[in-house]
Predict the 3D structure of the following.
Amino acid sequence: MFFFIGLVIAAQVGGRILDKRGAKLAVVSGCAVGAVGFYLLAHKLTDLSLGAQRLDIAIAGAGLGLILGPASTDAVNRAPSTSYSEVTGITQTSRNFGASLGLAILGAILVAQNKTNVTNALTGHGVPQSVAHKVANALSTSGVGKSSSSGHPLPLVHDVQLAFARSTQTVFYIMAGVMAATFIIAVRSLPRGRVVAPEEQAAAAIDEQAALAGGRGRLR
């Protein structure tokens, strides 16, 4: 929830920046904010305290909120009016493909890390390697609860939860690195300035024609 609160609020800010200054400032700022947010969140994950992570979750969401809208809108606005629909479709397809690919890669990393970390946590408490590996495989797909109602000793449950947190920590550090790399690319590659959307260009042309017609009428 905190992630989407930050995302929604920042999306409004990003839209205003796009209208006034163009996409580059919004995207560069979003990459920097997102990198900081994901790094801070990863750093605190092993505390196992959601209350201590709320602000960092919101910061990470704000970073993405600043990027998504301005980047897509700017890409479409730079397209020729004759290719507006095609560019819109390509932009949406690229976004969906990138999100799916990133989710698949990070999900695979998370599952692999979970299996390793949970197995190590269980064997550290004397669970046989074969049993620990089976339990780790099961927990990697179903998750782990926060209580010890299953009858396991509380230290064991805590260490398994910590193993999950460390696995997620690895993913968030990777996300912070990706945001930092995107920041560098955005600073070097994105053009400055605001691009006028096709509908704005059409409206301006109509206004200009109306003004010219009005001027000719007065001259007569």
